[in-house]
Specification:
Length: 303
């Protein structure tokens, strides 16, 4: 009993396929492979090549008892679809048993964002008395000024910086390269961090600063991980008693929302965010419209 060798091999080949050929991010690939592994464990000794549509439906019925969110169920179904589309493409199965699976409708929700005042509260309460504190200040200023993802910021190397032109090269989802613009304020904090604070962050450890070296480092000189930034934000939000759950991604939502509110062209915002489709960017117009309604209702005497 246990996973069949065929299923193990198929999972390994699938992982290589989505990472190399499909350019999935490491985060997405890990989630998909975890979903498929759960499915294969449930199959036990049954080979993934012998699965029928009714067997897949039986599995989906089985996982209902775990009361996953609709978004999680939708991802698990997407994982199964992608897995069996790959097996069918490679002629490992005669028919695709996941072809006609229907995903649950995702609940429509607008991304949360911070007001300019709330952003400034967070930035102004970031302690800069220590090298690590100044690094954190540069990071938050950069997130707010550029709208980059926290994974993109963590992945920055010195070769990606072109501060003379106020530009930074980032690699987004699917390793897609794009150029983002940096405000003068964020640039000054970043430059001062590089010149003065960065060499002192990892006191007692050798710190490289060649082209391939990470811009943001931890106290041992290695690349700073996203969870550290999340922890920093949580501590600041708790300190100022801000009644919102704030994540690095909310800085990205806030960046896009305020650009739209101030008249930025949707295509420009799409380019800055690195969205593959304009439809992903259009959600910020709905946020902007909602904000306008709130302002109208609060300020118009007859509203």
């Amino acid at each position: 009993m246990g996973l069949s060798e065929i299923s193990k091999n198929c999972l390994e080949e699938f992982k290589a396929y989505i990472l190399v050929e499909r350019n999935f991010s490491k985060h997405t690939a890990k989630a998909y492979c975890t979903d498929i592994l759960d499915f294969l464990i449930w199959l036990d000794s049954t080979s993934c090549e012998d699965v029928t549509f009714s067997k897949v439906r039986e599995y989906l019925h089985f996982i209902q008892k775990f009361q996953y969110k609709k978004t999680t169920i939708a991802r698990k179904i997407a994982s199964l679809r992608t897995f069996y589309r790959y097996l069918y493409k490679e002629k490992r199965v005669e028919a695709n048993p996941a072809l006609n699976l229907n995903s649950p409708k995702k609940p429509k929700s607008l991304p949360k964002f911070l007001t300019t005042y709330e952003i400034e509260q967070i930035l102004n309460n970031t302690k800069i008395e220590t090298p690590a504190g100044y690094r954190n200040k540069a990071i938050l200023e950069l997130l707010w000024a550029t709208g980059m993802r926290i994974s993109e910021l963590s992945g920055l190397n010195f070769e990606d910086l072109n501060l003379e032109e106020n530009e930074i090269r980032v690699f987004g989802k699917g390793a897609k390269e794009r150029i983002i613009l940096v405000s003068q304020r964020a640039k000054s904090y970043l430059q001062r961090y590089i010149d003065t604070a960065r060499p002192l962050v990892a006191k007692g450890f050798a710190v490289n600063s060649d082209d391939k070296s990470p811009v943001f480092i931890n106290n041992t000189g290695y690349r700073l991980q996203p969870q550290t930034v999340r922890k920093v934000i949580n501590e600041i939000v708790e300190k100022i008693d801000l009644p919102k759950h704030v994540t690095p991604h909310i800085f990205r939502h806030s960046f896009a929302t305020h650009l739209i509110e101030n008249g930025a062209d949707l295509r420009v915002v799409q380019e800055l965010l690195g969205h593959a489709s304009i439809s992903n960017t259009q959600i910020y117009t709905h946020i902007s419209s909602q904000h306008l309604k709130e302002v109208y209702n609060e300020t118009h005497p007859r509203a």
